[in-house]
Design brief:
With about 525 residues, this protein is mainly beta. The chain is built from 6 helices and 29 strands. This is Arrestin-like N-terminal domain-containing protein.
Length: about 525
């Protein structure tokens, strides 16, 4: 169906498609009819509609010249201006103006305890001096009452309550204060509570201090989990009373390692060992005992020394099986061999305290160092590392941190444990009928701990007695229960007080303050 002008009559649904080209009057009829069939008539534009026209490049009359539209021209000029300013800044650098901003809004940006590494990492002995400084930095005038230093020695033990009905009873903690010394380094005295407060000027204040230890033997620094603990700590305290709440500050606590001076009580000699270890009543080898002969040289020994041992261990008949004394016939042959002999340096801790008004005491043993011996000069038995007579000689190295002491709640001693295993001479493959048992004995070790630079080797070979308690001009320190405590004083190892004024142009101070504010 068509109109009089030859245009096809399209349905209303298809009239929404815009007609861009009209059928040409020239050309073959087939193309004209095809174009007429494909192109719908154009639709009129409504008065309220606006056609979208994208930004286009303007072309100048000159060939090859492209001009941007006004909007893009403004953007290009802005980018060019920024690039020109950047190039000028790179070519002619100017000095940066000083930063006048406040580095932080906090008043106290630094409050710490400065103790030299050589003091913290070194063990202190009676008569030594601990030195350090308290450093405080403020950004504005700050009122404070005082800056004080605290040096605390505390002993703590854990005891099991024998009357507890719990399946796994919790240990009871018992504390003992060895000493607590306080000193005001700046501001009011430690005992005063009123009066006007002092003002800290903006800047860094460094106050040196020194702690003189008395010539008494305080317990050694030690920490054993859920057993005992002896600790010496020092820290500083800044008191700033406020209107509604206090603004007190405390530095981190620095732990000071301390050891007493334990002098030898007798000259060095050989410790003879002649003992028979009897079996347990329910042991598989009930009729067999172990005879230990030999000794240890260079006792009493210093921590870290080498101790020479010479031991001979063999299996003998038990005195209980024969009804006679083992010393009368100790060398009766038996069909048992000694296996796996070990020497162990043992730390023995005896802790005691009051629980519900009753004295309770408990012992703990900890292996510090062990050496496995090998049979020497004897034909080995059927089993590996076994012999009818186990004889060995060698050196036992003592740990360097051995330090015996005696206090009110803790006693720390050392022992040498001789441990061996005895087995019968049955075949190695016959493990069902072979009988084995472990035998153990303890020998007390006399160990000393003294500074190497303050005690001569000649004094170590002399013995102390009640008449002569002074060897090489040295006397042993008194017990820590004596009426002597550490003394704290200001200065003593550098200038009495140093102060660095606050300066905004100081980059080190600004970096410190901003780091504190960021944290």
């Amino acid at each position: 169906m068509s109109q009089p002008d030859g245009t096809a009559l399209w349905p209303k649904l298809l009239r929404r498609v815009s007609l861009t080209t009209r059928p040409s009057s020239s050309g073959n009829n087939s193309n004209s009819r095809a174009g007429a069939r494909q192109q719908p008539p154009p639709l009129p534009i409504r008065p309220t509609e606006q056609l979208y026209q994208p930004q286009q490049l303007w072309t100048d009359s000159r060939p090859g010249t492209v001009v941007l539209s006004p909007g893009l021209q403004g953007l290009s000029l802005y980018v060019d201006e920024q690039q020109r300013m950047y190039e000028q800044a790179q070519q002619r650098p100017t000095a940066a103006a000083p930063d006048e901003r406040a580095p932080t809004s906090e008043r106290v940006v630094e409050f710490r305890l400065d103790i030299p590494a050589g003091v913290c990492n070194m063990t202190q002995h009676p008569g030594d001096t601990i030195v350090g400084s308290v450093v405080v930095t403020v950004t504005k005038p700050t009122q404070a009452q005082r800056i004080s230093l605290v040096f605390l020695g505390q002993e703590r033990v854990y005891l099991r309550d024998p009357g507890s009905t719990a399946l796994i009873p919790s240990p009871i903690k018992v504390d003992l204060m060895l000493f607590e010394k306080r000193l005001s380094l700046w501001g009011q005295d430690i005992d005063s509570t009123g009066g006007p407060m002092e003002v800290l000027a903006p800047g860094t204040l460094r106050i040196p201090f020194s702690i003189a230890l008395p010539f008494v033997n305080y317990p050694s620094t030690i920490k054993r989990e859920k057993v005992c603990r002896v600790r010496y700590t020092v820290w500083a305290h800044l008191e700033r009373p406020g209107t509604f709440r206090d603004h007190d500050m405390t530095t981190s606590k620095e732990v000071i390692s301390m050891d007493p001076l334990v002098y030898p009580t007798r000259p060095r000699e050989v410790l003879r060992i002649n003992q028979t270890i009897q079996p347990f009543s329910d042991s598989a080898t009930g009729g067999v005992a172990v005879r230990v002969d030999g000794g240890l040289s260079q006792l009493p020994a210093m921590a870290g020394d080498r101790v020479l041992y010479q031991l001979e261990i063999r299996a003998v008949r038990s005195s209980s099986s024969t009804g006679a004394d083992s010393s009368s016939e100790p060398w009766q042959p038996v069909s048992y061999t000694v296996r796996y002999v070990r020497l162990c340096v043992v730390e023995r801790l005896n802790v005691r305290g009051l629980i519900r008004g009753e004295e309770q005491s408990q012992a703990y043993r900890t292996d510090l160092h062990s050496v496995s011996l090998e049979p020497a000069g004897q034909v080995p038995g059927k089993h590996s590392n076994s012999a009818a007579v186990f004889a060995s000689t060698g050196y036992l190295r003592l740990p360097v941190d051995l330090c015996p002491f005696e206090s009110k709640h803790v006693s720390r001693l050392y022992e040498l444990r001789i441990e061996c295993e005895v087995a019968d001479d049955s075949s190695l493959l016959d493990k069902v009928t072979r009988q084995t048992a472990t035998y153990t004995m303890y020998v007390p070790l006399d160990v000393c701990t003294i500074p190497p630079d303050s005690f001569t080797s000649a004094a170590l070979n002399n013995a102390y007695s009640d008449e002569s308690m002074n060897v090489s001009g040295m006397a042993p320190p008194a017990h820590h229960m004596a009426a002597a405590e550490p003394t704290i004083r200001i200065g003593g190892w550098e200038a009495e007080r140093s102060y660095v004024k606050w300066d905004k142009a100081n980059p080190t101070w600004i970096e410190l303050a901003r780091k504190k504010a960021a944290a």
